[in-house]
Design brief:
Layout lengths: L5 H12 L3 E6 L3 E2 L3 H9 L2 E14 L3 E5 L3 E2 L8 E8 L11 H15 L7 E5 L7 H17 L3 E7 L12 E5 L18 H4 L13 E6 L2 E6 L2 E6 L2 H14 L6 E5 L3 H6 L2 H7 L3
Parallel strand pairs: 1-3, 1-13, 2-5, 3-6, 6-7, 7-8, 8-9, 9-10, 10-13
Antiparallel strand pairs: 3-4, 11-12
């Protein structure tokens, strides 16, 4: 049977290539796992760790520069795929970042070689791009994808809810970030980490978004001090599961590949095991 809708065919092919499985983000500056974290990886059959290698920040004099590079004091358990992830501050994409793609991929490859990390098959780029930065960011992603392919790696990127209304980026798949959905200054009205009322307006974009998607859910605590008062934000288990059910209803594919942000003992202990079992249910 011939497929006349090319975009639809490519999407289905991409879904087939997006392996089903459970994953986590690792977002510290030192790769070091304790016994609780190792037990979590085993208990919930985690097969991928998206590991933040470094950030890219804007320097007034030098342009985009790496910052907060990861140290490797430990290694992941065998049979868990490590995916180097780079966070890029949005203002780095306000102009064309000449040569940044090759420098970024070369730096990742060098970090892998220096720390004897083998079998890396993918790079992920995380950027909260906007209408202002989108064109430069997508051109940058095209260059990264070309450089990564030369090293046998594919490319993914994060997708925030407000980016669902934009043209899809030139990557192999995206991770839909279902956290930090609210305005941080409206914390008295809604939980800025996750609130179904903030997610709901974007659900209509999900079905027609022509890019394979995984889904990432929050398990972290957001602590800050406002006017001398300590304020903690954390998404409730009920809210996480409510959002999970809603997005999977619109986009069943989001059951295939599920992530949590991020791997850390306090986060593991924050929720009951049955909550994690429901988050990671396919």
């Amino acid at each position: 049977m011939l497929c006349l809708l090319t975009a639809g065919c490519s999407k289905q092919k991409g879904i087939a290539e997006l392996e089903e499985g459970n994953a986590v983000y690792y977002w510290r500056t030192d790769l070091r796992l304790d016994s609780t974290e190792r037990a979590f990886l085993k208990q919930y059959h985690i097969n991928k760790v998206y590991c933040r290698y470094f950030d890219v920040v804007m320097s007034d004099s030098l342009g985009p520069m790496p910052n907060a590079t990861l140290r490797f004091s430990d290694t992941l358990p065998q049979n868990i795929e490590l995916i180097p992830t780079v966070f890029i501050v949005e203002n780095c994409m306000h102009q064309k970042p000449e040569g940044l793609a090759k420098k970024l991929v070369d730096r990742i490859v060098q970090m892998n070689e220096t720390n004897d990390i083998k079998g890396v098959k993918e790079i992920q780029i995380d950027c909260d791009y906007t209408a202002r930065s989108r064109m430069h960011y997508y051109a940058f992603l095209e260059e990264v994808r070309k450089e990564a392919k030369a090293h046998g790696m594919r490319l993914s990127t994060t997708i925030r809810l407000h980016q669902l209304s934009m043209k899809v980026p030139p990557v192999d798949y995206g991770v839909l970030m279902l956290y930090n959905t609210g305005h941080p200054m409206k914390f008295m009205e809604r939980n800025p980490i996750l609130d179904m009322r903030d997610v709901a307006p974007y659900l209509r974009h999900l079905e027609g978004y022509d890019l394979p998607l995984a889904a990432a859910y929050p398990v972290f605590l957001w602590h800050r001090i406002i006017h001398g008062v300590d304020i903690d934000h954390v998404a409730t288990a009920e809210e996480i599961l409510k959002v999970k059910n809603a997005v999977e209803k619109e986009r069943p594919e989001l059951k295939r590949a599920i992530l949590t942000y991020d791997l850390e003992t306090d986060n593991i202990n924050r929720y009951k095991p049955e909550t994690y079992e429901k988050i990671y249910s396919h």
